[in-house]
Design brief:
With 467 residues, the chain is α+β, with helices and mostly antiparallel strands. Helix content is 48%, strand content 13%. The protein has 16 helices and 13 strands. Strand 10 and strand 11 form a beta hairpin. It is elongated.
């Protein structure tokens, strides 16, 4: 214990240090508060009797602050400046990034780079990225770990557990991912885009989602210009290890194959945080108008849905809506649609899915009707036994209807199996009776012949004595 305390003077545990490495390995920049909310959400519902919010935060984040301080002494973590609210942000050193890769089971190429100078301007954008990930995941506390806390705290923890789930875990997310329109993954060329967040959570119905965070400072035209780069990246193809040319993004991420009638690009989510002076909802509408060529689909009037062949599903929300409703709530506006939807509906095409389901149901119903009609027609052709009047079984029908030269011919094709069996038995019995009758008749005739011959012999002997 003494040696452990000497190596980690702040007294942190291996698990706590691993928490810090995993969170920073994914998000690159985070405060102790954010690390705690992601890694140990149950701590949010402890220390609730502290007199002020500041003291409550200090108490619940103490463990992860100690872990970050121990990692700093090991040369794995650095201070990255402070947020606008004065909180210290943490970043990884190159050695820390490598250690985080081990914790996350990611190769160096998947870890991304190390941000520099993020705290000099308040780390506004990195904080929005991190808060977006927290709002998407919606970490749930363990109720067992808040047992014994005040009733209000336990009730709040239970409400968080009972709330709709978020999407994925910290390991489902990647940040600052280069998407090369040309060049390589490691060295993207000019005209490439860098995604703020990439989410891969197929178990939650989101195999691949690109997320852009915006603090409402940028002009809408600059945001819209990113989608020109996204389009070039999505259209880029490369020959994969299997020798087949496919979209470049498919060589890195897995996703269901597009259905034959529609080849839609992966969706992109815009998350606006009302920090800057531009209204978030106004930004959404402006970006939607400027990117229409990328997201607008083709309406199929007969079926009542749009198809999006070669288009990018672009969805927008605000960080406030995302925090309030979560991914399962009505927080997302799909460009070109009315109103807001849950995430899976917004990035999907529920009207198309419903129309295709109707088509499949109609096709199955038609197939059933066709099968029923064919069955009725076949039943009408089914032979009837000439003796008992019963319909032939399928096996009997097949036997009497055999046309192959190698197939044995049925002996009584106009009879059912039972009647044929009885008839065969009767025929065999009749044949046996006839053989017996013939044998009896033969014996009788032979006896008559013998008697006649005997009589002739007897008459000839007597006639000699008479003469």
């Amino acid at each position: 214990m003494a040696s452990q305390r000497k190596a980690n003077p702040a007294g942190s545990s291996n698990d706590l240090r691993a928490d810090v490495l995993r969170v920073l390995g994914v998000l690159k920049v985070a405060t102790a508060d954010q690390i705690q909310r992601l890694s140990s959400p149950h701590l949010t519902y402890r220390h609730t009797l502290k007199p002020t919010a500041a003291k409550r935060k200090e108490a619940r984040t103490a463990s992860h602050r100690s872990a970050a301080n121990d990692l700093r002494r090991h040369g794995l973590v650095l201070g990255g400046g402070r947020t606008r609210d004065g909180e210290e942000v943490r970043i990884l050193t190159p050695a820390g990034l490598a250690a985080a890769g081990v914790e996350l089971d990611r190769v160096p190429e998947e870890m991304g780079g190390i941000p520099k100078g993020v705290g000099r301007s308040g780390a506004s954008h990195p904080m929005t990225v991190t808060e977006t990930v927290i709002a998407m995941i919606r970490p749930k506390p363990s109720l067992a770990l808040v047992a014994g806390e005040p009733a209000d705290a336990v009730a709040a923890a239970r409400a968080a557990v009972d709330a709709p789930d978020g999407v994925g875990t910290i390991a489902s997310y990647f940040t600052e991912v280069a998407l090369p329109a040309k060049g390589t993954w490691k060295n993207p060329g000019l005209g490439s885009v860098r995604a703020d967040i990439v989410l891969t959570a197929p178990e939650a119905g989101v195999p691949l989602l690109f997320i852009e965070a915006d603090n409402c400072f940028e002009d809408a035209a600059l945001i819209a210009a990113k989608f020109d780069k996204y389009a070039r990246f999505f259209q880029r193809k490369e020959t994969d290890a299997d020798g087949i040319a496919k979209p470049l993004w498919r060589t890195r991420w897995s996703a269901p194959e597009s259905e034959p009638y529609e080849r839609v690009h992966p969706p992109v989510l815009l998350v606006f945080h009302q920090v800057g002076p531009r209204p978030a909802t106004g930004q959404m509408k402006k970006v939607a108008a400027l990117t229409r060529q990328h997201w607008q689909g083709t309406f199929h009037r007969g079926d009542g849905f749009h198809s999006y062949d070669g288009r990018i599903p672009i969805v927008a929300t605000t960080l406030e809506w995302l925090r309030e409703y979560g991914p399962a709530g009505p927080a997302f506006w799909r460009f070109g649609r009315e109103g807001r939807q849950p995430l899976l509906e917004a990035i999907g095409n529920p009207r198309r899915d419903a129309a295709l389901a109707r088509r499949r149901d109609a096709a199955r119903a038609e197939e059933r009707r066709r099968a029923e009609k064919e069955a009725a027609e076949r039943e009408g052709r089914r032979p009837v036994c000439a003796d008992c009047g019963q319909k032939f079984t399928d096996a009997r029908w097949k036997a009497v209807d055999s046309r192959g030269w190698s197939q044995p011919r049925a002996s009584h094709p106009h009879l059912c199996d039972a009647c044929q069996s009885r008839t065969i038995v009767a025929e065999k019995q009749a044949e046996a009776d006839e053989r017996e009758r013939q044998e009896h008749e033969r014996r009788r005739q032979e006896a008559e012949v013998e008697a006649e011959q005997a009589a002739q012999k007897s008459g000839g002997w007597l006639s000699r004595f008479r003469t």
